[in-house]
Amino acid sequence: MSETRRLHHLIGGERVTPASGAWFESTNPATGQVIYQAARGDARDVALAVASARSTFEDTRWRDLSPTRRGHLLRRLGDLIGEHSEDLARTETLDNGKLLREMRGQLASLPEYWYYYAGLADKVHGSVVPTSDHRVLNYTTREPLGVVGAITPWNSPLTLTTSKLAPALMAGNTVVVKPSEYTSASILRLAELAVEAGFPAGAVNVVTGFGAEAGQALVDHPDLAKISFTGSTATGARIASSAAARFIGSTLELGGKSPNIVFDDANVANAAMGVVAGIFAAAGQTCIAGSRVFAQRSVYDELLERVTQRAGSIRIGDPLDDATELGPLAFTDQRDKVASYVDLGRDEGARVLTGGRATDAGLGGCFYEPTVLVDVDNSMRVVREEIFGPVAAVMPFDDEDEVIRLANDTEYGLAAGVWTQNLSRAHRMAARLEAGTIWVNTYRAMSPMSPRQGFKSSGVGIEHGTETVKEYTRLKSVWINTSEDPVADPFVMRS
Ligand code: NAD
Fold first, then answer.
1. Which of these is catalytic: 287, 325, 366, 369?
2. 167-187: per-residue pLDDT in tens?
3. Which position among 102, 253, 386, 463 bears the catalytic label?
């Protein structure tokens, strides 16, 4: 074990050994091999990181940096990510098993997130507010919050962390990131690149470790000004209540059980591809997975035939191989969770049309076959709960009203897909579906320019787009009396 690579925390631009002296292993899920050990952070490491972020926040070299210069730093970091994209893509593939070609695609667009916020940095400003007294000037300013805590999951670490880091830094905050314990490596590399780009050493700090230890300590730290979290709804609820008790804001991007709805006027061949993309891409390990598929009765058989046929021919294997279409689940417990949900579905009366088995794909890894469940309905746990794996539940429906009722009958509200050639229907559905993102005749589209927000138990707050400015700044209202007139009555001093 002594030869295994060790990854330290990155605090104040330095590699820092964990205060506990403890390390934990990270495993390549495609092979089961240990690939590195990471520092097992606890409250002491978090305290060091928050102190570093706090002192950088107060340092004039950061505080007085013009927004335009801050934008230059973001742009430079975007450039560096582009220069190191192959290495970063491989790092994530080895950690969480996502296809290398998918990761190359994500890395190709990742610099654009940084460029987008680089351009926004010097366009954040307040406004002058007209009040009833012309002698009083009332204006607003937008200030950074301070130290932001960012806690992220394992499924797309660089992209999901960038969604927090870029707007937080753009607005003049400093950040402590606690990445998922399954994917520490790429986030540590990102923080190193931030130092290389010229960010002050304590602007981006990373404490690795487990949620209950490092994560909880970060959430509970009294100097934190805001917590930005992406992960499961259960953890999000705990974090939200902890933040609320201390009156700090939280942005929460949580779970989903998104409907993907196919009408009989759709291009069914394209819709079938959209269904496959929605649930089998990334082995279903995406928050926006289209895990509930609704097909209008007259195209139900055709859609099912197409989806099942494509699902059955998906090439499972090494995520580094360009020919592979489905890589492993990110870790063994995740594979076991998927397997137990499919078993539960069988017990609940579901029929497994294709898939339904775990495999090691001949590589020693933790894979699960693309699985299609039928004979399911909204009363079953496999339809109600997030599985976070390659498992689609397919159900028929008769008309718009019925499918709206079925699709909205969920605690989640992250995303929804609609497949139709009828323009009016597309708009009606977009208006009536209770989800923060609606895709019509496409699925999984994403851009730094397009805001996204989870409805219901899928989250609170916005990521991406200009609305994000409000998530990472606070508004101050300044009143200036320009009049030298004597104050006549101190008991009614108002405008
Ligand atoms: P998770 O909630 O188990 O963990 C997420 C992060 O929180 C990890 O870094 C973990 O260490 C940390 N954490 C766990 N317990 C904590 C605690 N008590 N205090 C502080 N931090 C704690 O989620 P996961 O399994 O890593 O990720 C999968 C989930 O994330 C799914 O539910 C998925 O839908 C969701 N997700 C949502 C989005 C979105 O944008 N809405 C995107 C990706 C993933």
1. 287
2. 999 999 999 999 999 999 999
3. 253
